[in-house]
Amino acid sequence: MSGPSTIVLPGIVAHLERFLRPLAATSGDGVEIHQDARGTTVSACEGRHAATITTRTAGSLEPILVDPAALAAADPSRPVKLYRISPTSGAIVQASGELATVTITPGKLPQSARDLTDVVEGEIASGSTRAVFELDPRHLLAVAEAIIAIGAEKVTVSIAPRWNVLACMAESADVAVSFLVAGETFTEPDAGEPGAAVDGDDPLAFTIGERKQTTRQSAGSRKPTAAPDLRLDDLPF
User: Fold this and answer.
1) CA 33/CA 119 separation, integer angstroms
2) In this structure, is residue 111 part of a structural domain?
3) Could you tell me the residue range of the domain that residue 120 belongs to?
4) Confidence band (pLDDT; 50, 70, 90) for 26?
């Protein structure tokens, strides 16, 4: 790089460390930042916990990694400016107004949060979203505060059971965000359990298969009673 450059990020990035913190998840190179002609993408991923933040702020920046704790020191109510001093170092203005040094590592996250988000969004679009599981409420608190911070009026919440993930997606005039919160435990209703298909109007109710099986057994039980024990002495003539 020829000289210092400024990377402008939405204030919501200050919430990423809190979003990941309950797992003591990410330390060091935890947040990926990338800019191209389409905009700026900030990704964080730890296991199945993931967040993707996109803005229309265009630029030319190969992917770099920074510590989410460094971003957490910024003021979430205003855009965060990351001053890149060299390929491996930068500075950020903290909420107190003081400059803090930020370590920068060129490269990408080992597991792309964007890839995981694409897979989960595809499952949600398929309609496979009915499930019940438990999760750490501190993740939800961080997600709620982050979404409120961007001024979003609504949030879309869905469960992707195949990945045991709660997806929270929101959009404002300038920012789109997607948070994936991994479930702690997972219980999916068994369609074969009694009472699982109580609603007779449900086209997915598994009653047809049960009726066929019952009919087949009844027909099979009538066949041996027709003649196997029949003897000539039993005939009336």
Assistant:
1) 21
2) yes
3) 5-187
4) very low
